[in-house]
Automatic annotation (TrEMBL):
The keyword Secreted applies. Residues 53-134 form the Expansin-like CBD domain. It holds the Pfam family Expansin_C. Keywords: Secreted. This is Expansin-like CBD domain-containing protein. InterPro entries: Expansin_CBD, Expansin_CBD_sf, LolPI. Its main location: secreted.
Length: 138
């Protein structure tokens, strides 16, 4: 079992229950309802298996925009690179070469197509299984 796996599983379970509750209240099924985290900044929990060649994280506390259409990561040197969605709110990148921080993260909303950029949110000395908080939200 991966260290920290229990916390990640609990977080996913809570997120799933919260979305199901909101969708039911809105009278629909099959659509992901927006979660409301007003006054809370977006956080990124780096997966325990992340390395300089493979980066994965869960996006937490995105406010009121439903699912994300895209997530892109920008290392210290280079442009933004698209990430792949693994599961709801969990994104990954297999870079093919070592990446170094600090990392900027660009998020695009699936509903409004609104874009926010968390500047230098994951530091140069980042560690797996850590949460890094931004100062932005939708």
């Amino acid at each position: 079992m991966v260290a920290g796996g229990g916390r990640r599983r609990d977080r996913r379970r809570w997120r799933r229950k919260e979305r199901v509750r909101v969708v039911r209240e809105k009278g629909g099924l099959g659509a992901c309802a927006a979660c409301l985290y007003q006054g809370t900044e977006i956080a990124f929990h780096v997966d325990a298996g992340s390395t300089p060649f493979y980066v994965a994280f869960v996006v937490e506390y995105e406010n009121g925009e439903g699912d994300l259409a895209s997530v892109e990561i920008q290392p210290a040197s280079g442009g933004f690179m698209p990430m792949q969605e693994m599961r709801s709110a969990e994104w990954k990148l297999n870079s093919g070469g070592p990446l170094s921080g600090p990392f900027n993260i660009r998020l695009t909303s699936g509903e409004s197509r609104k874009v926010v950029v968390a500047q230098a949110v994951i530091p140069a000395d980042w560690k797996p299984d850590q949460t890094y908080r931004s100062i932005v939200n939708f």
